[in-house]
Amino acid sequence: MDKVLAIEHEKCTGCRLCELVCSVKHDGVSNPARSRIRVMKWEAEGLYIPMACRQCDDAPCLNICPVKAISRDQELDFVRVDHDICIGCRSCVAICPFGAMGYNSIDSKVIKCDLCHGDPQCVRFCDVKAVNYVSTTQINLNKSREFAKKISVVSKEAEAL
Amino acid sequence: MALDRKLAIIDLSTGKIETKVIPLDLRKKFLGGRALDAYLLYNHTKKGCDPLGPGNTLLISGGILTATCASATARTHFMAKSPLTGLLGSANMGGFFAPELAWAGFHHLVIKGKAKKPVYIYIHNGEIEIRDAAYLWGKTTTETQWAIREEMGDEEIKSCVIGPAGENLVTFANIMTGIKNAAGRTGMGCVMGSKNLKAVAVRGTMDVKIAHPVEALEFNKRFIEQITSAKVNQTQGVLGTPFIWGATNSWGGVRTRNFQYNQCEDSDDIEPERIDEICTETMGPHHMTGCFGCQVHCRAQYKIPSGLYAGKYDEGPEYTSLGAFGGEPDCKSAVTVLTGNHLVNQYGMDNLEIGSLIAWAMELYEKGILTSKQTDGLDLKFGNDEALLEMITRICYRKGWLADALADGGIPASEKIGKKSFDYLIQVKGMNNLHSDERGTPALALNSATASRGSDHLRSRPAIDLYHLPEKVLRRIYGNPVPYDGPLSSDHTEYKGKPWQVFWQENCYMAVDALGICKYHTVFLGATLPNFDDWPKVIYYNTGLEMTPQEIFEIAERSNMVERMFNLREGLTRDDLKKGDMLNHRYFDEPCRRGALDVVGAKIDKKKFMKMVDELYEFKGLDKKGIPKPETLKRLGLNKEPSHQL
What we know:
With 161 residues, chain A is of the alpha+beta class. Chain A is built from 5 helices and 9 strands, in the order βαβββαββαββαβα. Helix content of chain A is 32%, strand content 22%.
């Protein structure tokens, strides 16, 4: 498996349904404070950017964990926390450059995206497809195609001239 | 658990704060939201209380589904005695406030008394404090929200606030949250201003436990598919509510020049496609945004492209801003509409009311009833964009004789202006009508006349009446969950069968407001959208409460009856032009001048209209005077109100 959460923030409407379904799926409660994905907002400008774990290849959280509670799930290729080992030192929270490792003070646990074990609910519920679950090569191909499209239009116009 | 969200009674005069559990039997009688607010208002105000005095009570609430795993539980409800109408004050807004209130531990706030100096209420995870708001006084709606976040150092705080209009006691000042979500009608912002209450700010991280999370999640998925598969919602998601104004205008169903005409000609610059073009040019192709958990995303983002306010960011404009700053004053410029929309959002004023009042003043000026001396030299003629925008600011700050008079609302202003000004005021119960023309649609006219908060389209409007649905489909909708085998007609010009549709919609919308969801998620504009049959499941999966469709219908009937009782207590009289279920004479006397073939020449037949009101009263269990029959009160368990259970 080579799939990641790919966020196209310009499509995000800021509704935060992803936060709601994330907390319901994982904890059986509605509470964005427990959500693994969070929509950062600049309301005065109308800008919304969902943020979640990138499942880094060379993950700082995994590297810094003093008790090796964080490992890579081989099957789904995501970074997971073993809460039985975790001592709650929050080094991972401090070091994550994306703020994607959260700390839930209700249960005193660090929280992070586990891709809902292959069926991310944020993706499933995002009607505008601002959050997608795609293979890394696909992201790159999509981007290439988008840009190539622009080139093709320009070159066709150039021919017409 | 949604059911364990509490109620807080906050007395601003004494500073006393009490939190209470909402008894389950009250939940079963009223669910929550607007329905429970109606009960609380009836119980927490005294007959004849001054709407601007400490005796008025302001209620703020979420619905029973707020912040649960149901679709679009974003709505916040406000209720108080209205300073605009002297009757029921009631307004509802989207955004993110009510869910945050629920995560902070509360579903209902009961705000009483009056603070000695400007204050705001801050609620955080079950704790409530009254804080100094001197530094916020005078600020616009967004400035206030951002300032509270800065003071508290928390970007996630959600506030509902008033702007300068509420502080200046403009009787149709609204309460706002975010950029443009407004509890617009009946002057709830004026009530906040009268209490010296600038804002209510909330922040919550408390769990709302879902009774059956797996089922709730799966059901919500199905629900969203049902909601987003409706063509009307797909269109809303691209063009927003301007599309309704555009479509209605095309056949002659909007109001222009203060109801002198029913269609706006040469309207290219304010048609939905043009507005969409500006939004795209200024905010990019993905410029639609939405309320909490909603997949309809009907709100557009824009920057004003030119003029005095060029570059300012705002959201909307909705149908009402197109009517208020486009059609009614006959100003057919997108920049004017977008600027007017921005001004009212910043000042915190109801766009619908102010647009209607200015258009009314324009007609009075045209007819010589208002003189240029009274307008302080302003050339208040139809189509004068600058005069329109100037009047918005003048009314907010009560600058000049006319603006000060208009800021008191239509009926008080008509008393000051005198002559025949009242005849031209298009209002019901003291509140102006939506900028739509209902002379060709008796069902919609009946809804406007009998809505509980004054003329209104969100209380009982059977909007799907315009779709000419086959009778079989109408029977499927209107014959449930309580049986109905009387007449139903697919013809929107008909009178027969319409009272039942209005009665059914009144209960449908009350249920929606009690659940705390949006009307785009029910049979308002789309016939296939969820209604009574779907709600028991969503209530059960999320709260564990078992209900039948019939019980929900009865809760809605009960709550509508409490609103009726409140209005009657405050002086509603059936045929009173100022305080009754009656329309302006133009509906009966002046036929539509423009529009499609079935619209031109249309007017409401008064005799048939009165018969419709009789029938509606019968369905509601009221007598011919519009007063509840004793057996109705008994059936609905309201014969001992006020019961002071909470």
